[in-house]
Amino acid sequence: ENIALCDADAGQINGSVAVCEYLGSEQFAYIDCGFDEMVTVRVAPDEAVPVGSVVGLSFDREKLYTFDGDGARL
């Protein structure tokens, strides 16, 4: 919820759109940033998010939660 799509190289990290899941009132874009798991971003249902396109991800570092390999919050 605190991650937004932006132009490539305009955010903190870039990734490739792997899947878009349209759910009527919202859609989720699954972004492959080269991590073990994809990053899921909620976007407006009318926003065009072409699969395969390279996008930037912008987020507020103050609202970011990180975890170590054992699942403990850092």
Architecture (CATH level 2) name: Beta Barrel
Strand order of the largest sheet: 1-5-2-3-4
Q: Superfamily at the CATH H level?
A: Nucleic acid-binding proteins
CATH class: Mainly Beta
Largest sheet descriptor: 5 strands, antiparallel
Per DSSP E runs of 2 or more residues, the count of β-strands stands at 5
Give the end-to-end Cα distance, rounded to a whole number of Å: 20 Å
Q: For this entry, what is the oligomeric state of its chains?
A: single chain
Share in β-strands: 35-45%
Continuous helix count: 0
And the CATH topology? OB fold (Dihydrolipoamide Acetyltransferase, E2P)
Radius of gyration equals 13 Å
Low-confidence stretches: none
Q: Give the domain tally.
A: 1
Q: Globular, elongated, flat, extended or rod-shaped: what is the shape?
A: globular
* SSE run: EEEEE
State mean pLDDT (0 to 100 scale): 92
Structural class: mainly beta
Helix content estimate: under 10%
Task: Give the secondary structure arrangement, pairings included.
Layout: E1 3-6, E2 13-22, E3 27-32, E4 39-43, E5 54-59
Antiparallel strand pairs: 1-5, 2-3, 2-5, 3-4
Task: Briefly summarize what is shown.
With 74 residues, the protein is mostly beta strands.
Description:
The chain has 74 residues and is an all-beta fold. It has one domain: Beta Barrel (OB fold (Dihydrolipoamide Acetyltransferase, E2P)). Helices cover 0% and strands 42% of the residues. The chain contains no helices and 5 strands. Strands 1-5-2-3-4 form a 5-stranded antiparallel beta sheet, with no helix packed on it. The protein is globular and about 35 Å long. The model has no long low-confidence stretch (mean pLDDT 92).
